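Researcher: If only I could read C-alpha cells as easily as an amino acid sequence. Walk me, if you will, through where the backbone shape changes along the chain. I have put the entry right below:
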Amino acid sequence: MSATTETLAGGYEGGGLLDRERIIAKPGFNRWLVPPAALAIHLCIGMAYGFSVFWLPLTKAIGINQSVACADLTLISALFTTSCDWRVSDLGWIYTLFFVLLGSSAAIWGGWLERVGPRRAGFVSACCWCGGIMIAAIGVMTHQLWLMWLGAGVIGGIGLGLGYISPVSTLIKWFPDRRGMATGMAIMGFGGGAMIGAPLADLLMRTFRTDVSVGVWQTFVVMGAIYFVFMMGGAFGYRIPPAGWRPEGWTPPVAKSTMITHRHVHLRDAHKTKQFWLIWAVLCLNVSAGIGVIGMASPMLQEIFAGSLLGLPEIKFSDLSKEQLTAIAAIAAGFTGLISLFNIGGRFFWASLSDRIGRKNTYYVFFILGILLYASAPWAAGIGSKVFFVAFFCIILSMYGGGFATIPAYLADIFGTQFVGAIHGRLLTAWATAGIIGPVVVNYIREAQIAAGIPRAQVYDFTMYILAGMLALGLVANALVKPLSEKWFMSDDEVAALQAKSKATTAGPSGSFGIGKGGFDGKALVAWAVVGVPILWGVWVTLQKTFVLFG
C-alpha cells in the first residue's frame, strides 16, 4: 500500500484545507452532521427570495421620508445617478439577476464542483454571496445602483448557484437509503431563507434608521457578516463518504423498479439523452406554474376577495378606501407568509414521500393534483370561499417546493450518483427559464383581462386554466421519462478510476460510520440546534403574520 493510500484511509494529511481529499470522512463520522452544514449555507443564500424587503426603503435612500423623484430618469441613468432616488423597477433587476445567475453558474461550474468537492464550492459561494452583499452596501453608501447590480446581482448570483448545488451530490451519497429526504432537508433551507432573513432585515433597518439614513447599508454589512460565519461553518462542516460507503446495516435493495439505476452516466453525456430534456421540461413546467402564483399571491387575494376580507362582501376592490386597502394588504401578507411555510414544508414532505412511492409517481401527483386545484381555484373564488381558495394554493405551493427538492433524487435515479451534482446544476437552467415564463404568463394575462374590462375578482380565472394546461404538458413529459439504454452508462473501470482518490480501506466490515445505525449523537444535536433555532424563530414570526389572515 502506498503512503498516499494509507494517508487517505486514515484521513487526509497535507494539502490545502479546501482540497477534496481533505474532507473524505474518517470511520466514526456521523452522517447526520452533513445536512445541518448544507442547511447553514441554504438558509443564508435563501435570503434571495426576501430581498424585496429592501426595495421600498431604498426608494427613499436620498429623501429618507419621501422619494426624490426625477421625471427624466431612465434605467441607464438610474445606474449612475447620485441625486435621484431609485424606483422599485430599477431595483427589481437585482432579483432577476439572482435567478438568471443562479441557473447559469450552477450549469457552468457544476462539473468543477464535482472535481473539487463541496467544501471548496461552499467556500467560494460564501465569498461571492457575502462579498456581493458587502459590495451592494458600498453601492447604497455611494448611491451607485450599478454597484448593487454587480455586487448583489452578479457576484451574489454566482454565489447562489454554487451554494445551491454544493450539497446535492454529497447528501445523496451519504443517504443512499433516503435520497429524497436528504436533498429535501437541504433544499428546504433555501425556501426558508427569506422566512428568517426578511424579518431580521426589517428589525435591523429599524435599528439603524436615522434622520440621514434608511439603515439599508448597515443592514447589508451586518447580514453579510452573519451569513459569512454561517456559510463558512457549513462549508467546513462538509464531509464526503469514501467510495463504496454504505450506512450500517443497509444493503442496496434488489431493484424493484427499472427507474432506479445502480450505474453512472458521465456529465459529458447526460445532456445528450432525451431523459435529461424531459426532466428539464418537468421541472420547468412545474416551477413556471408555481412561481407565477408566488409573484402575484398578495394582489390576487386582495383583488378576488376585496371587502370580504374585512367582513364586507358587498364592497368590490375598486370601491375600497385607502384605509381598507391598507388593512387587506396586511391580511394578504399573512397569506403570503402561509404559502411560504407550505413551500418550505413541501420540500421535505414530498421529497421524503418520493422515497416510498418513487420520483416519477411523485411528479404524477404534482401534475394531476395541481391540474385539479388550479382548475378549481376559480370555483372557490366564485363561491367566495376564502378557506378553499387558501387551502388550494397552500397545497399547490407545497408541490412547487416539493418539485425542487425531489428533482435531485430523480436525476440520481436515472443518471446515477457520480455526477448528479453537476447534472443537477445544468438542469437548473429550467428554473431560470421558468422564472421568466411564469411571471410573464400571470402578469400579462392579468393586464389583458383588466384592459378587456373583466372584473378584478375574475381576472385570474383564465390564468388558472392556462397554468393547469402547463401542468398537463408537464404530465405528458413525466410520462415519457423512461430508463436509459445501456450505451449511456460508464464502464466499471471508468467509474473505479474516478472514485480511486476517495476509496476507503479502513471503513469497517459494513462501512459503518456514526453511532449505532448512524443516528444522532451529541455533536449532531448541537449542529441541528444551530440551524434549527433560527428556523423556529422564522416560523414563529411568519405564523404571527398568518394569524391576521383568519383572525
